[in-house]
Amino acid sequence: MTYPLQEHHFKLLKKYGLSDHHALCEIRHYESGDIVFSQGFEYKYILLVVSGKAKVCTTSPSGKSLVLAYYLSSGIIGDVELMSKTNYATASVVALSAFECLVVPFQDDDDTMFKNLTFMTELAKGLSNNLMSSSHDYSSNALYSGEQRLCTYILKGAYKNYFYDNLSDVAATIGISYRHLLRLLKKLCESNILKKEKRAFLLLDKEKLIQYSSEVSYFENETL
């Protein structure tokens, strides 16, 4: 089904300096758990995030997924591949909620987007932010407890006060056993910080979750 572009889509294209691409764009919708981009998938477009939340992860030969230290609720999908001239996805993107993207096709190095200062500036900002986030998260894994890492992971991955994710992947990403993860989640539920629901955890006390995390100052600034 084809959806016509709305005013907020045109505003998003303008923000990235891509208004001249609007006739080629396509809107895509995903549900929680849907794969937006598969690792190794060949593509010829970028995606602009319109709404929702997704995780960026790499998959091992055994099938386990490891989150690459950041989540998407805005920005560009395919930026790393675009700048490295890689024609296949180097990681997978999985929706954690209802997720909407704007598909923007491009034509090799001759495309006007590569000569567009606005687009290139926004692209550079996104890449630098992801690099800083990844570097910080790698150091956090060595310096903080499993509980602190879990609370940070939940806060970064939550959308509209709900946390949806594959628990095996969560355990692998924050570097603890699956059994220990279940113990920590049970403790947070018993402390009335989280509430287990069918397919997700509801954040009952975000302030306490922030205090238990490894990035207290970061999350406190986010709520200001």
From TrEMBL:
Q: Which SMART domains match?
A: cNMP (SM00100)
* Residue ranges annotated for the Cyclic nucleotide-binding domain, each copy included: 9-104
A molecular-function term among this protein's GO annotations: DNA-binding transcription factor activity
Example of a GO cellular component annotation carried by this entry: cytosol
Q: Which Gene3D superfamilies match?
A: Jelly Rolls (2.60.120.10)
Name the InterPro entries for this protein. cNMP-bd_dom, cNMP-bd_dom_sf, Env_Response_Regulators, RmlC-like_jellyroll, WH_DNA-bd_sf
What Pfam families does its record include?
cNMP_binding (PF00027)
- Return the protein name: Cyclic nucleotide-binding domain-containing protein
Q: Which organism is it from?
A: Enterococcus gilvus ATCC BAA-350
